[in-house]
Amino acid sequence: MRAAGSGAGRSESRSSGIVAEVGGGGKRRRLVHSPRASRLSGVEQAEDGMAREREIKLRIEDLAALRRALAKVGAVVVTPRVHERNVVFDTPELKLAEREQLLRIRTESPTGRGRTVRSRTLVTFKRPTVAAGSSVRSERHKVREEVELEVSDAKALARIFEGLGMRGWFHYEKLRTTFRLPGTRTWAKGLLIELDETPIGIFLELEGPASAIDRAARALGFEKRDYVLANYMVLYREYCQSRGEEPRDMLFAKTKRRTRPAKNKNVS
Predict the structure, then answer these.
(1) What is the pLDDT of residues 197-242, one digit of tens each?
(2) Architecture (CATH level 2) of domain 53-255
(3) Segments making up each domain of the chain, as ranges
C-alpha cells in the first residue's frame, strides 16, 4: 500500500495503479491510489513514507466576516461545496482508539445545481506521530501520519472490515468547501483552507506547512490562542455535554438516527 503524499508528480503517475482487488462472483472492484497531488503538495513526510498531515481548526462565529476575510486575502474555491458522510471503524474493544488510530470510510457527494465535482469514496488510516500515551505533545498544530486511498465500492470495503471483526461504530457528516490562496502568495504553497459546516457549528481548517498555517490564520484575523486541535469527536462530545445530551452520531437533523453512544475521541 502506497502512502498518499509522495510528491505531486509521483502521486499523479501512480493514481491509476491498482493497489488491491476485492469482490467475488466474477466481479472485481479496484482500490486505487487517491489522486491527491493537488491536496498534498508541500505535505510533510514521515521516515516510512507516510504522509504527515498538519492542521488546525478555527471556530467560526461570524461566517459573513470570514467570507470577507477570505476575499480580502484572495482565496479562491478549488473544490465546491461537497457533502461528506463518514463512517469510523474499530474493533468491538476499540483497539484502534486505544492506539489513537483512525480507520475511516468517507463518501463525498457534490451539492448544488452545477455539481462539477464527482462523487468519490476514500478510505483513510491515521495514526499519531508519537506513540499513544507519550508525553511528547509540544506541537502547536495537530500532526498525524496518514495513508489515504480512493476506492470504488464503499459497501464492499465495509464488508471486508466487518469480516475482519471491525464495525462502523461512529457516523458523522459535514459540508466542506475547499479554498486555496493564489500562486502569487508563494508562502502559501501547499496550504488548504477548508470551510466545514457541521451539525455542531462552523469551523475553518487550515492544513499545510506550519509557517503557512500560522501566516494564513493571522491574515484571516486569528491568533494562536484561537487554534483548536481537538477533533470533531471531542468537539461533538463537548457540544452534547453542554446541552445535556447523550453523544451518538454527529449527523444533521434530517439524517439523525438512534445508535449506541459514541465513546471514542479519535475522529478527525
Answers:
(1) 999 999 999 999 999 999 999 999 999 999 999 999 899 999 999 9
(2) Beta Barrel (2.40)
(3) 53-255
